[in-house]
């Protein structure tokens, strides 16, 4: 693969992954990397959420310090991968993203990493959970980490039973019908340094008010939610992380920094019960926001501490199992 300097600079590189054309024409994904020590054998691949792209260099900093190679993927029609022929975020099935993830994981293996953490935030957490269930035959990753996974719409029970099925049905018939997005602009304002936050990112790729969606997107997400609600299994350990509370401010408030303003954390906890795994942990964090790693300290520090302690246990256990298997063949 040929890499060029990424927009983040500071050692980040990117390469374009060409994919087959779809219903909008040309399709690409973008793999971003920052290589660690030449002795590193582990890597992480980060998958972003809806109305998002990779800019969270703090994740790379923390994983590089722990001896990992760092990779992130801007999925098709997001961030670095948006082309002129695209509606941003446009998808008709979450399966479309599997090709992007497949190729990214293959490249990571080709570049020498022996063990890979597959990490997803919000919609990315939903995607990697379904991906792990549907790709059991592929041994391209070793463990899942989900940061506030989007396992259900943040709506009332009656809206989930009436409005979503209708929009999903519309999405199957007329996937290009345009629908508004109901996310609050306050979440973006809590993140970006030009408003009340501390982070800098491209507001064209991640605007405070998400661009309109197609009905096909609603159907794709609904199909993913229904699949999890019916029960799925993954072959790898999974760590599911979330804020301790959800917040619903009607005007700007410091409350935005105390909880998840995008998802209902009760939905995350409840839907996690339907995921069968060899090892599963579901952990909440006080004073944490929707993207947990962008929370204010000390919540942010605790999130990373929890992730690395959990991964250390997993990789230590995996090493012991591998040694026992090797000894048994001698």
UniProtKB/TrEMBL annotation:
Keyword Methyltransferase: no
Residue span, Serine aminopeptidase S33 domain: 40-184
Coiled coil feature spans: none
Keywords: Hydrolase
GO molecular function: hydrolase activity
InterPro entries: AB_hydrolase_fold, Hydrolase_4, MAG_DAG_Lipase
Pfam family, one: Hydrolase_4
UniProt-recorded name of the protein: Alpha-beta hydrolase superfamily lysophospholipase
Domain of life: Bacteria
